[in-house]
Design a protein that fits this description.
One of its GO terms (cellular component) is endoplasmic reticulum. Pfam families: Prenyltransf (PF01255). This is Alkyl transferase. It is an enzyme of class 2 (transferase). Strand 3, helix 9 and strand 4 form a beta-alpha-beta unit. The longest helix has about 40 residues. It is built from 12 helices and 6 strands. The chain has 3 domains: about 30 residues, no CATH class; about 80 residues; about 180 residues, Undecaprenyl pyrophosphate synthetase (3-Layer(aba) Sandwich), CATH 3.40.1180. By secondary structure, the chain is α/β, with parallel strands linked by helices. Helix 4 runs parallel beside helix 12. The structure holds 2-acetamido-2-deoxy-beta-D-glucopyranose (2 copies). The site of one 2-acetamido-2-deoxy-beta-D-glucopyranose has 7 residues, from helix 10.
């Protein structure tokens, strides 16, 4: 019986072992497309980068674990004055943390960075429930988590941040809870107003998107004031959606466009009152660009990443018009627990699918 000896190249193909030497010398019996080589190399590079980032992340996590008892996980729950010793230790730790954070951001910035990140801040109530603290405290911790994440995004050079703070549906919740939330918002907006010189220094523009008429008077006025005060800023753009839902945004935009068209038609009608209407009907059609102009998000690019915390997988009527090409992510931590490492992980995942996202975008544009 004749058994063909397994040649080197068949062996390689059969067992899919492609050592570097073969790849680089391009063994004549081995037809390796250029594509394979680049794919292989990018894969190796990717893995190396991931490994590097993962080890940095590991160090970061260890530091957090070590520093946690010192810093105290939620200083807002039990405000206690730090003793001088504590302050020294936390000072050292936080400057080391800052250093590592800067390193990680520098590593991340080699890849494509998102311009716009949208958050659905889910899990504040569950956080309070699991720790058996008051619901309001859960929202408070959630707010400090929001401020921290804003800062991280700013450091990473993400220019647009949008958060879902309150949906129109939330009004159906327990009235006392709605009341408490409104009070919290008023308090926080007023705090921001007090520190508006800091906000202006950071060059941060704050928008409120939604049916502001539905808010109670003090909150609405405060929100309006904050928007006016920061309207001139040209740096980071922070948009708070409250009370918001996307269908309502679209309906508002359609109404806005209709009103505009009506006005235009009337003007035209009166200007050539006894003339023959030459291009009647042409202006009456509504285009996508018209609607875009009337969305709250006018002037903002569409979100690159949409993050919904606490593992929920629904969009819940948030930015439906704007998220066609966004990368959706649903990390497990509850919103108050969402920290820097989760944000880094989200961006790494985005960078991994970036080529695919760009490809789909290009294809969609071609088909239009
Ligand atoms: C969205 O908001 C509108 C009010 O503007 C409301 O009638 C509608 O029920 C909301 N939709 C959802 C799905 O919450
Ligand atoms: C245009 O003018 C005519 C004549 O006055 C009027 O009958 C018509 O309703 C007007 N159309 C619009 C869209 O205003």
């Amino acid at each position: 019986m004749f058994v063909e000896p397994l040649s080197y190249s068949t062996f390689l193909f059969k067992y899919q072992i492609l050592p570097y030497s073969v790849l680089f010398n391009c063994h004549p019996t081995l037809l390796i497309e250029e594509r394979t080589v680049t794919f292989f190399l990018t894969e190796v590079l990717n893995q190396m980068c991931l490994l590097f980032a993962a080890s940095l992340l590991l160090i970061w996590t260890i530091i957090i674990r070590m520093a946690a008892p010192l810093v105290s996980a939620s200083p807002l729950v039990e405000p206690k004055l730090p003793r001088p010793d504590d302050m020294v230790t936390t000072g050292v730790f936080s400057s080391f943390q800052n250093f590592i954070r800067k390193c990680l951001i520098a590593v991340l910035s080699y890849g494509p960075m998102p311009k716009h990140i949208a958050f659905i801040m889910d899990g504040n109530r569950r956080y309070a429930k699991f720790r058996s603290i008051q619901e309001g405290t859960g929202h408070r911790v959630g707010f400090s988590s929001l401020m921290a994440n804003l800062l991280y995004c700013h450091e990473m050079g993400v220019k647009y941040i949008t958060v879902y703070a309150f949906s129109i549906d939330n009004f159906k919740r327990d009235p006392s809870e709605v009341q408490a939330l409104m009070e919290l918002m008023e308090e926080k907006i007023n705090e921001l107003l007090e520190h508006s010189n800091v906000i202006n220094k950071v060059n941060c523009k704050i928008n409120f998107w939604g049916n502001l008429d539905m808010l109670c008077e003090p909150v609405r006025l405060a929100a309006q004031k904050l928007m006016d005060k920061t309207a001139q800023n040209t740096g980071i753009v922070f948009s708070v959606c409250m009370p918001y839902n996307s269908t309502s945004e679209i309906v508002n935009a359609v109404n806005g466009v209709c009103a505009e068209k009506r006005e235009m038609l009337q003007k035209e009608n009166s200007s050539n009152f006894n003339g023959h209407d030459a291009n009647g009907g042409v202006h009456s059609e509504i285009s996508v660009a018209d609607l875009d102009r009337h969305m709250y998000s006018v002037g903002c690019p569409d979100p690159d990443i949409m993050i919904r915390t606490s593992g929920e997988t629904r969009l819940s009527n948030f930015l439906l018009w704007q998220t066609t090409f966004s990368h959706l992510q649903n990390p497990d931590p509850l919103w108050p627990e969402f920290s820097f490492r989760h944000l880094v992980w989200a961006i790494l995942q985005y960078q991994r699918v970036y080529p695919y996202l760009e490809e789909t975008k290009k294809l969609a544009k071609k088909q239009l």
